[in-house]
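Look over this today:
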Amino acid sequence: MTIVEDNHPPQHVAIIMDGNNRFAKKKQLPKGDGHKEGKTVLDPIVEYCRKVGVQALTVFAFSSENWNRPQPEVDLLMFLLEQTIHEQIPRMVEFEIALRFIGDDAKLPEHLKQLIQEAEQKTAHFTKMTLTIAISYGGKWDIAESAKRIAQDVVDQKISVDQINADLFNQYICLGDLPAVDLLIRTGGDYRISNFLLWQLAYAELYFTKVLWPEFSVDELKKAFAVFSERERRFGQTSEQIQQNKIEN
């Protein structure tokens, strides 16, 4: 199954990059090598998304729950994230991609916070695509933080309680300025969204694959896009309404 590259791709793709540790066990590699292998997979995925016109790609690199993992693994992940950002900055400049980060940075090392700020500043003006890396991110945290900022704006009389609705809430949520997520891909064989982009995934198509992240290729991405292109996205309407809209448009 492949995708014809001039078809309309999803505007916003989100990926839960799962299966690194299982890949290491499968290949009988030292502990941690699965994460190192997984780090190399992202570049061709980013390049293909940009090539076919995806507007936004958001990847789950480190969840708020991942802080509970063994400290040596957490330290390795922080090191690999730092390496990844250093490597991505010149690539983002080359491909004119804006690099962004979402998540609770309270526990991040100070030098990593500074690197994140530098990466965002250097690439903020690019408009070909937006690559967002979720670090120390959780969907519940995102919603709670948005509610907190809305409450503060009500207290400060910037908005009224009556103004609060889904459209206004979307202005406070992470990635609210980007298209809603069209397609969520999870590698590794698990069938859950693991507290990722809970608000942003409201109408996303979900695609689960048993392929482990270090083995996920552009061909596997094309399979996901092909399945997406075959889905009928009704957004509460009937199939007949969707077909009529297509005829009218």
The chain has a mean pLDDT of 93.
